[in-house]
Amino acid sequence: xxxxxxxxxxxxxxxxxxxxxxxxxxxxxxxxxxxxxxxxxxxxxxxxxxxxxxxxxxxxxxxxxxxxxxxxxxxxxxxxxxxxxxxxxxxxxxxxxxxxxxxxxxxxxxxxxxxxxxxxxxxxxxxxxxxxxxxxxxxxxxxxxxxxxxxxxxxxxxxxxxxxxxxxxxxxxxxxxxxxxxxxxxxxxxxxxxxxxxxxxxxxxxxxxxxxxxxxxxxxxxxxxxxxxxxxxxxxxxxxxxxxxxxxxxxxxxxxxxxxxxxxxxxxxxxxxxxxxxxxxxxxxxxxxxxx
Length: 292
What we know:
Blueprint: H1 2-11, H2 25-28, E1 38-41, E2 44-46, E3 55-59, E4 62-66, H3 74-83, E5 91-95, H4 101-104, H5 107-114, E6 117-121, H6 125-130, E7 152-155, E8 160-163, E9 166-172, E10 181-189, E11 192-199, H7 216-231, E12 236-239, H8 247-256, H9 268-291
Parallel strand pairs: 4-5, 5-6, 6-7, 11-12
Antiparallel strand pairs: 1-2, 2-3, 3-4, 8-9, 9-10, 10-11
């Protein structure tokens, strides 16, 4: 009875839950258009939205979730997991790509409800704990505060996380934030295996008054992150904002037929990295043109 009461309380949309208070709801709505849950490959599932990627990996010892969206997306993420026949309470780890509120704002609630441990790139841990980004972040002046995460562990570049026969490797891809981390794992369907990368953003996004041309060290971080992403072994690349490549179209195709998997592309990470480089170059060119 106590357990039933607890679940009911968490699901009560009328109860004020500090961890579920919406962040910038009008702005965030652009990311939260529903997206059908899809088995991507093996035991890896898409459980996110049209504008924000969230991925679930099933293992023999529990579930791994990658990213947590915004607080107002938490109940939808949990519902998507249930649609697949899984229990969100069995999430053992939540992996975070970056300490920005659009990807990590819902993590505190998801971790509380499941008891999961949050894993992030070591440079992002302090920001995730306090719920705000550092002063050197290009979005610092516009970044909304988010619920801080308590049960969290930082990992270094190349460190591996193992659970129930699945090994996920942290791949530092800094730039968008200093702690931005992509996650890489092997997925198999019988003898057919593929390497999946859930890629952190390497977008040159900032407050309106921020100039990347005035911050060469930040530009170098972005370019280094793109180089690292391009070098990863990768058959399937899922960017944290799925509209960055063809993820949404490929998920739709998978929903219609599984005769072939359109997500599989041996050049997936290189192509995604090239898109980010184009955006970096375009942003710098735009800033230089404004100065003329």
